[in-house]
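lol ok so funny story. i was supposed to be doing the assay writeup but got distracted and ended up predicting the structure for this chain instead. priorities right. anyway since i did it might as well share w the group, maybe its usefull for someone
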Amino acid sequence: MKSAKVLVALFLYGCYMVRECLQHDNPEPVKTALLQTWAEKLYFELWNCGEYITNRKSLQSKYNKEAKLEGRNGHILVANISSVIKSMMDKKQQSLKRILESVEQVAVSAHNDAPPGDEYKVRNAKPNKATPHTNILLNDLKENSHFYHTPVNATYSSVHIPTYVYDRASDVIKALKWSENLDVAFRKNYEIDPRLSWQYFGSTTGFMRQFPAMEWPDKPDNTEDLYDCRMRPWYVEAAASPKDILILVDNSGSMMGQSKIIARHVINTLLDTLSVNDYVNVLVFSNVTNEVVPCFKNLLVQATLANIRELKLGVENIADPNNISDFSIALTMAFETLEMYRERNMGAMCNQAIMLVTDGVPENFYELFKSHNWKNGTMGMPVRVFTYLIGREVPEIRDMKWMACANHGYFVHLSTVEEVREQVVHYLPVMARPLVLHQSHHPVIWTPLYADVTDPKMTDYLWEKEECQQQYHDTISYKETKDQFFYPKNKAKRDRDRKKKELNQNLNVNRQKKHNLITSLAMPAFDKKTEMNITVRRLINDNYWVWETRETKVAHLLGVVGTDVPEADLREAMSPHILGVNNYAFIVTNNGFIVTHPDLRPVFGDILKPNYNSIDVTEVELVDSDNIARVFDRSILTLRDYIINQTTGDREITVKYHYDDMRRATTAERHYYYSIVEGTPFTVVVALQEKHFGYRVKIPDRFQNLNTTRSSLLDYFKDDEWRIHPDWLYCRYAYDDGDDTSFKTPEDELRHFLKRIAKTDNTWNKWPPPRFYSESYDSKGSTLPEEKFDGKCYCDKDLMLSLIYDANMTKGIFTEAKNDTEKKKNPAAVLMSLLPRTEFEKRFGVTLAFVATHSGLTRWMDYEDKPKTPLNSDDHENQQPHFIDENVYSIEEVWYRRAVEYNMVNDESYVYSVPFENENIKSTLVTASQAVFVTSKENKKKGAAAVVGYQFRHSALQELFLNITKQCYSETGCTPAKDTCQSIERDCYILDNNGYIIASENVMDTGLFFGNVRGPIMKMMVKEKIYNNITIFDYQGVCFKRENEDDSNSSSFLYTPIHHLKQLIGWLIGRVLWLAAHSNFQWMMSQAQAIFEDVPDYQEDEESVYSADTLANFKIEGEKALKYVRINRTRPKSCDRVVNLYTLTSKIPEKVEHKSMCARPYELRKIMNTNLILLVVNGRCPETTKAENFDTEPKEVDYEEFNNSLNCHKAFYSLPRRRPKTACIRTHPDEHEIYDKMCGKGTITTVTPITLSIVFFLCLIL
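and the output, tada:
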C-alpha cells in the first residue's frame, strides 16, 4: 500500500514537471489588450491628478492671453556679451594702471629712504602667526557679500607674508613701508568701480599687499600656510614672457641623501612657478640622459596642472643615484630640444631656459655653450642658463656661477631644504630684465581659470585626509559592533557609501560653493631707477685688495599688480535669463581651455580635480558621432580653430550631452555663435538650440514701466512660499557697507528693492544696469573717466520686470477656486475637487505643488504640514530635505530642463522621476513636471514661460500600480492566474524614458537602472531600437588608483621628507588601533568620541536574519580582522571615463514578428501624456532570468598605447593652440651691461630656533 502511494506521488510529480516544461517551451503570450487597458488607466489617474494639482491650463491661458514672443538672434547675443565683457575687462585694466603708476612712483621716491626701525608695525593678514609687537590689529572687519562674505575693512589694505620670508629683513620691511601708499589708489579704484574685486600688489621680496584688508583664512588642521604670491598664476605670467624650460637634474653617485632631497624640492618649486603658457620637461642624467616621464621623450609639455603633477610623480620615481654624470650629453640634448622647438615654432615661442640642478660640475663647458648658444654672439643667445648648486661642502662654485653669468642666467647655492622656495624664485626677476629695460611696455596678462587662494597640490592631501577619517570611523565601528561589522548588509552599505563618494564628480561650476574660481588681470611693475652704485672689492696685485664704488646698470622688477574677475561675474555678464533654458554661453582661452561653461565640473566632493582648469572645449562639447575616446570629430576641431584664433562667425553641430549626474543623455542640433573679446585671450561662444528654443517670452507693454502695477508689487510676493535664483542679479547696492545694504537672503534683498520701487515714481528707471561701466566705455580705447560711481544701487531692469510679471501670473495659482468652469468639464476633476483634503492626500499622496518661471521665480505650496521656512529647519538629519532646499535654480534644474525638452516630443506630457538608488524607500517622492509654453498666434512659434509640477509619495504610486495591474478584464481574454502582474508568470515595471525603474512589484527596484535588474530584457529593447544608446565620454573624470598598483610613470604619493616618518607613525597607530579594538580602553573611546561625533550607528539586529552557523562565518578576529578593517588606500588621478546611457525612441515599435514567443519575452505600452512605459516581462521564458550586467556606471578608458596614462596620450596627441597676443620681450641690448655680480650668489647657512628645536628633539628620541 505504501509503495503504491509512492508510485502515485511520483507519477503526479512527473506530470507536473512535464506540464512545466511544456509551458516553458510554449509560454502564454502577454495579452496586449490587457496591457493597453492598464496603461490607459494609469494615464487617467496620473494625468487628472497632475492637471488638478498644478492648475497648468489656467496658467497657460494667462500667459497666452497677453504675453508675446521675441526671437533670439545669436549674432546679436554673442556681440552684446563680448562687448559687456570687454567693457568689464577695460574697467579692470584702468584700475590696474592706476595701481601700477602708484607703485612705480612711490618706489622711486622711497629709494633713498632708510629701512624703518623696530617700532614699525604692519597690518599683517596672519596676526596669529607673527609676534604682536610687529603687527597692527585689523579692526572693524565687517562681512561683505561682494568679497565672498569675507569680513573686510575697505579703508586700508593688509599684507600676507610667506611663512619662510623674514618680515623684518631690510629689503622686505622697506618695501612694506613704501607700499602702504598704495591704499590711496586702491580706495580710488573701488570708488570708481564698486564691482571691482580684490586688488593686490605682489612684491619680489615675497609679501602681497591686498585691498580691502582681511584676515588670512586658517588652513585645515592647522597645516602650514604655503601661499606665496610669487608662485601664483597671475604673478608668474606677468613677471616674464612665456618660456620653454628644460630642467636637468644630476643623478650621479654623489647626489645621495640630503642632496637628493634638496634637488627634488628645487625641481618641484621650479615646476610650481610655471603657467599654462609655458612648456617644460625634466631630464635626469648620470652617464645617460632620460626624461623622468618616459612618454614625454623629446617633448616639451604644456605646464598644465595635470602635466606638472605627472612630472612631479616622475621626479619621485628617479632611481637611486649612481655612476658619473656626463654633463656634455645632458646639456647637448637640452640645447638640441630647445632648438627644435624654436625652428618649428612650437612651445611657448618666446623665452627659453635650462635649469641645471647638481652638486658640482667638472668644468665650465665653454666650447659647448659657444657652439650651441653663442652662434650669433653673446648678445643674441637664445637660451638662458640657471644653475642650482646643491650641498653644504662644495669644493668650487666658480664654474657653476660662470655658466649662469655667461648665459644671462642666475646662480644659486642651496645647502638646506628650508631656503629652497625663497631662493628658487630669483630666476623670475632675471627673466623679467628685458621687460624692465624696455620700461615703457607693461603687458597685461589674463590668467586661465583658477581657485582663489587654494593650493591645487592639496588635492592628494585632502583625499588622504578623507581616507584617514574613513579608516578611523571603520575602526571605531569595529570596536563597537565586533562581528556585526562584517555582516553583509553593513559591509554593502560601506561599499555603497565609498562608491558614491568616488562617483560624486558631477557638481558643476555654479553649484559648488567651497572654492572661489576666478580669472585675474595682472601687470608687471618696474623699478624706474636704471643705475645704482655698488661697492666691490678689486685685486690690485697678487695679495692686495681694495674696495671701490662704481655705477652699474640695473633692471629690477618691483613686483606685479593684479585684480580678480570672479567666474560668477562672467556668468552673470552672459545674461542667462535672456539665453533661456537649454541655451548657454561659455568662454574659451587661446589655449582652447574653458573659463566658464555649464558643464565645467571642477571638484569631486569638495576637492579640486587634478586638471580642473585645463578642460578643453572639445572635452565639453561632444559631437554626436561613433568615434572612440579622444578621436574628436572634424566639425568640433574646426569650431575650436575658429575660437582659439579669435574669429567671429557661426557653425551648426549635432551634439550629445548629459545631465542629472550623468545618468541621462540626449542629442540636439546646436548653433554656435562666437566672437572675440578684444584685447584679451578670450572668445565668447553662444550655443542655441534654435529649432526648439529660439524664442523667449516678452512681457506685455503694461508691465514695461510699472505705471499700473507699482502699488501692487508687494502683493505679488506677500507669502513666504517663493524663492528667486540665488545667482542672478535683480537689484543690488553698489557697496555692501552696512546693515542697510546687507541681506541674509536674496528674497530679503528683493523685498527691500520692491518697497523702494513701489514708493518712487519712475526714478528707479534711472538706476544703472549691473554692467553700468559699458555705457562709459570709449570704443577708441581712450582712458575711462576717473569719476566716482554716483549711483547707490543698480538693477537689471529686463530681469526685474520679467520677475514681477511672472509673480503676477503665478500668484495664487495653487489656491484658485476648485469650481473653475474648466475643471467642471472633466468628471474626474470634479470628483477630485469633491474629495476632502485628507482623503485626497491619502489617495494620491501629494506632498507639494510647485511652479518655476523663466525669470528665476519658484513658488510652491505644501500639502502636508511642514515648516513654512524649510531653509531654516534645524532637524535635517532625520528627515529628507524640503523640495525648495535643493531646487531654487529654476531653468537650470533637471526637472525644468527635462520638462521643456520633452515638450518637443509631446506638448501635453508630464515628466516623472524618482531619486536614483534611494535607500530610504519609505520616504521616496516622485517628481512630476510639465512645461508651460507661450504660443504665437501668427507663426505658431513657442517659447518656454514656466514649468509646473508636483511631488507625491512613491508608496501611493506603488499602490496604484499594483492595484491596476492585478485587475483582469474579461473582454481582454485575461486569466487572473496567468496574465496579471500578481501571477508568477508575469513581471511588471514602469520605466521612464531613460530606462530607470519608477515602479516595480519589488519596491526595492525603485530608482535602479532597468539593465541592472533585467539585463537581457534591456539588451533586447536596445537591439530593437526601443531605447537608443548614447555613448558619453567624461573627459573631466577622476579615477582612484590603489597605492600598491604598479605604474611606470608615477608613484603612489608625492613624498615629502617627513613622509617616511609619517609611515612609521601610521604603522604605530595601526597597531594601537588593533589593540584598542580588542581591549576595554574606555578612556580611549571617550576621547575619540569627544573628537569625532559622527560615529556610525549599527543598532539593527541582523541575528534574526542569519542562522547561528552563518553568523559564525562572520566572526573574524585578530590580524585577519585588522586586514579587513583596513581600507584600500587610493590616490586620485585624472582619467577619461565612458558611460552608455539610453533614451526612449519617440516611436516605439509595438508589433514585431518573431519565430517564437520567447524571442521577444516582453510587451510594452506607452503611458499616454507621460515619459513612462508600462513593461510586462514573460517570466516563463528562461532568457529573462539570465544574470547579465548592463549598467550605466562610468568606466575608465584605457589608453594601452601609453601604459594607460591619460597625460601621455594628451601630450602625444596635443591639440593646437595660439600663443598669447602680448608681445614677446626676451632680450634687450643693454642687458649685458648689468654687472656680472648680480647674476647670482651663495647662501649663508644659519640655524633658526625652530631647526635647533627639531635637532634637539631628534637627539632625545634617537
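The first strand starts at residue 68 and ends at 71. Residues 701-783+793-809 form one domain.
back to the writeup now i swear
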